[in-house]
Design a protein that fits this description.
By secondary structure, the protein is mainly β. The protein folds into two domains: 66 residues, Rossmann fold; 110 residues, UDP N-Acetylglucosamine Acyltransferase, domain 1, CATH 2.160.10. Helices cover 9% and strands 29% of the residues. It is built from two helices and 23 strands. An eight-stranded mixed β-sheet has the order 6-8-11-14-17-20-22-23, with helices on one face. A five-stranded mixed β-sheet has the order 3-4-2-1-5. Strands 13-16-19 form a three-stranded parallel β-sheet, with no helix packed on it. The longest helix is centred in the first third of the chain and has 10 residues. The chain starts with a strand and ends in a 6-residue tail after the last strand. It holds the Pfam family Hexapep. Keywords: Acyltransferase, Repeat, Transferase. GO terms for molecular function: acyltransferase activity. InterPro entries: AcTrfase_PglD-like, Hexapep, Hexapep_transf_CS, Trans_hexapeptide_repeat, Trimer_LpxA-like_sf. It comes from Lentzea fradiae.
Length: 214
């Protein structure tokens, strides 16, 4: 049975999620978006109305909800939003693009996998994870809640990614490396050693940015 779907956020990620759910018409019926930016109220996001702020979520008690927020500069924002809304897990939609390969992985509530994402073996992915197109997650990886993977980010085997970490576009993480909670990995970075929680690393090989301790 098709379920109504509310998008939280009306920016670029919302448009990406809409493109995915429209390929799943037997699963999702996108009824609107909610965003606290008053300038967006009454506008359309790719044909879907922005119905108002987050306080309107109570108007749609039967709708599933997906958090469409991903920002490298505010890596904790999505989980903060989820915590603020305080909805049960069954209200959060898990959206998997039909061109994604999950290999039987267990996906947490609210997780979004876009086109071309590949998970190579059965493993567990946390809640409210966002994986943009062509992300690669391989054997024995551990992906915590709230992680964001930009397009073409890839993990070697046995990588641990902590809560709300952000891996930039085209970044690569060597097998067995740990990415700490809230860490940011710059686009195109090649990560060969552990990244401490909260730090920003970039480059080839990746190193902490000026002002961060190694």
């Amino acid at each position: 049975m098709t379920r109504p779907l509310l998008l939280i956020g009306a920016g670029g990620l919302a448009r990406e999620v809409l493109a995915a759910v429209r390929l799943l018409p037997d699963v999702w019926n996108p009824v609107g978006a909610l965003d606290d930016s008053a300038a967006l109220h009454g506008t359309l996001v790719d044909g879907v109305p922005v119905l108002g702020g987050l306080d309107r979520i109570g108007d749609h008690p039967d709708a599933a909800v997906v958090a469409c927020i991903a920002n490298a500069r505010r890596p904790l924002s999505r989980l903060n939003l989820v915590s603020t809304l305080d909805l049960p897990d069954e209200r959060w939609a898990t959206v998997v693009h039909p061109a994604a390969v999950t290999s039987g992985a267990s996906l947490g509530a609210g997780t979004v996998l876009l086109a071309g994402v590949v998970i190579t073996t059965p493993l567990s992915v946390g809640r409210h994870v966002v994986a943009m197109p062509h992300v690669l997650i391989t054997h024995d990886d551990e992906v915590s809640d709230g992680v964001t993977f930009a397009g073409r980010a890839s993990l070697g085997g046995g990588v641990f990614v902590g809560e709300s970490a952000y891996l930039g576009q085209g970044s690569m993480v060597r097998e067995g490396v740990r990415i700490g909670a809230g860490a940011v990995v710059g686009m195109g970075a090649v990560v060969l050693r552990d990244v401490p929680a909260g730090q920003t690393w970039a480059g080839v090989p990746a190193r902490p940015l000026l002002g961060e301790s190694a």
